[in-house]
Structure prediction request, 356 residues.
Amino acid sequence: MKPFIKRKIIASVAISLDGYLADVDGGYEWIKGDGNLALNTPDQWDYNSFLKDIDIVVMGKNCYDQQLHLDFANHQLLVATSKLQGKQDNITFINGDIVSQVVELSNQPGKDIFLFGGGLLIDQFIKADRVDEYIIGIIPVILGKGRPFFMQDNPCLELKLEKYTIDQGIVVLHYSRR
Amino acid sequence: MKPFIKRKIIASVAISLDGYLADVDGGYEWIKGDGNLALNTPDQWDYNSFLKDIDIVVMGKNCYDQQLHLDFANHQLLVATSKLQGKQDNITFINGDIVSQVVELSNQPGKDIFLFGGGLLIDQFIKADRVDEYIIGIIPVILGKGRPFFMQDNPCLELKLEKYTIDQGIVVLHYSRR
Prediction:
């Protein structure tokens, strides 16, 4: 029998060099590379491969309202909201202490858990130091203003760089806890 | 005769993954690697080599008050302050429109110009889009709180990744304008 390996809780986001998740209007048009292939790594970050190792996706209500849940028809989806309740297709609406509920799931056998966003949802997990892996894509742009990924007043969390890939100036950094 | 190449204005800083230059007390003890050599690049970012291509260092008054100018005895040093005036050894105190004064120097022959910090000084150059190269070392830590590098309300600046090095989980990214 295979020993049980704890499911990882993974935050994966793309941010500008100055730390924004989205522009002031919530737009993502700036999420693109610089067109230069010269620094590309042989290995590439592959979102679809990543999703194959995930069975639960957690997102906030804003992401749900933007229909982003439609991308995860083959995953179990948890949407954090106090406005909706119960289940609907592959979606379970959750509220209250989101972190504890997700951590409890992470202690059950299964694939990994993907914290999709937004920033306020992931922030709760950062503040509780419950993110096992950070996959941060750094877009080669200073966006200047927008919606920040990291909120204020987090604990100091020492990380270990586990892996990196580069694609057209987008640097994807994978960190675990140190 | 060699054609004149414009001197670059270079900002080089180390920041935490969440974008801080220093902790809340101004401390830098967290600026260290994760101890893992496995991802090190063959080339390494070499601060001393970098300084050989620099002849002017620009810093704010706080850095000067912290005696950080003592590290640059062999460079021409510009300290931005309205409190002090004139010259002292290798230091010239400047005030008023700092950006214009430094840009004027960048149009004269010489080596490159290093914007040392702090954040408020470099911010003036970012806002004016007068930084020719950003060298950003990303320390493998979420610091949680502290003094941010990127201030609010910057222009959107598209960058090109020119180079990267990794040393014990510290990822140094070199960007130019796109």
Observations:
- Chain B has a mean pLDDT of 96.
- Helices of chain B lie at 47-52, 61-65, 98-106, 119-127.
- Chain B touches chain A at residues 17-19, 30, 34, 36, 39, 126, 134, 136, 138, 140-145, 149-150, 152-161, 163-164, 166, 169, 171, 173, 175, 178 (CB under 8 Å).
- The radius of gyration of chain B is 16 Å.
